[in-house]
Q: What sequence folds into this?
């Protein structure tokens, strides 16, 4: 049974950095399209960054130049390095495995984790 588990969320000040981790089990995330998403209360889940099986990446415009998605295939872990954090980055962050076109739409993902909270204060 495939599952993912996020960790690394924390409370930081504006301009700070965090690295989120997503541990995969039951599947090899290095072979899959993997995505990072975030959600705030009352809002839809939105795509932040994705990485395809061939290493191709894509980012939401709001995080380009600040966030980097990567993975360690040997450890079966997906990462999201977040730099220059802003209050608007505050959200519950999720990772998931792709189940369709590899893009930023949450519709095409499955095996969602429970999320990890990122809070950025000004």
A:
């Amino acid at each position: 049974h495939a599952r993912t588990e996020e960790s690394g969320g924390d409370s930081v000040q504006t301009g700070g950095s965090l690295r989120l981790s997503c541990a995969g089990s039951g599947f090899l995330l290095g072979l899959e399209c993997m995505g990072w998403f975030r959600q705030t209360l009352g809002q839809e889940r939105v795509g932040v960054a994705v990485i395809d099986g061939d290493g191709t990446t894509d980012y939401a415009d709001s995080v380009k130049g600040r966030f980097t998605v990567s993975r360690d295939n040997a450890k079966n872990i997906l990462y999201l390095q977040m730099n220059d954090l802003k209050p608007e980055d505050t959200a519950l962050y999720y990772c998931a495995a792709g189940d369709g076109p590899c893009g930023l739409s949450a519709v095409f993902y499955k095996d969602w984790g429970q999320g990890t909270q990122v809070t950025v204060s000004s």
